[in-house]
């Protein structure tokens, strides 16, 4: 590959549990009606800006899969290859999966909830074996031989995400393809952090929990990264496309376009 290539990061549209303020994690919940509209508008944005992906990577969860399908259809790119991996699944929220945030806040307190949600190393309590909101018997993971986690921190997400990025996604980027990754809020926060480090931001251990807690992407947010021929980001944070809001730590704040 010569010159530069483009990486597009899209957080899935609003899910039914986003709308209900419930923790989803690996629970396979569908998009809400609003989320379907958000996904279509992202596809229109790709079409109107001429940022047409050549390949898409998604998780195995339907809110990301459906967002990718709707966006590609709106962009008239429904025919391009789509690659799916559990490594792009949302963070496993452990015992919080299925629970309402207000209920969790009332039980554990706002400070502990914020630590679990936003810190780099904080893990919620592990989910119980056989929980109705667990994935112990989920055929998609059993057939793939995936060891389903009981809970995850953002650091854990980055550990399972990085090998997929460095092999599968990087291979498409090195081939000069415009790559669209349709994933989840915590997965994209981990990837944004990784890309920031590649661009020269402080190493993971030098970024405080307060810094990470400020990195937020709303549902339906679309970020563009321009990468060099060795896949280093031209700038440490992506450019936000469209009108949706996004924030980042002070040195890595997303900008609007």
What would your notes on this structure say?
The protein has 257 residues and is of the alpha/beta class. It has one domain: Phosphoglycerate mutase-like (Rossmann fold, 3-Layer(aba) Sandwich). 38% of the residues lie in helices and 12% in strands. It has a seven-stranded mixed beta sheet with strand order 3-2-4-1-5-6-7. Helix 3 links the parallel strand 2 and strand 3. The longest helix has 21 residues. The radius of gyration is 17 Å and the shape is globular. 43% of the residues are buried. The C terminus is likely disordered.
Concise account of the structure shown:
With 257 residues, the protein is α/β, with parallel strands linked by helices.
Keyphrases for this structure?
single chain; 257 residues; alpha/beta; Rossmann fold; seven-stranded mixed sheet; 9 helices; 7 strands; 38% helix; disordered C terminus
Helix content: 25-40%
Average pLDDT for all residues: 89
Q: Sheet bearing the most strands, described?
A: 7 strands, mixed
The total of beta strands comes to: 7
Spatial strand order of the main sheet:
3-2-4-1-5-6-7
How many DSSP helices?
A: 9
CATH-defined fold name: Rossmann fold
Strand content: 5-15%
N→C terminal distance: 27 Å
Q: What's the CATH superfamily, by name?
A: Phosphoglycerate mutase-like
| Residue windows where pLDDT falls under 50 for at least 5 positions | 203-210, 243-257
Q: Which geometry do the CA atoms define?
A: globular
Question: Compute the gyration radius: what is it?
Answer: 17 Å
Number of domains: 1
Overall CATH class:
Alpha Beta
Run of helices and strands: EHHEHEHHHHEHHEEE
Quickly give the structural class. alpha/beta
Name given to the CATH architecture: 3-Layer(aba) Sandwich
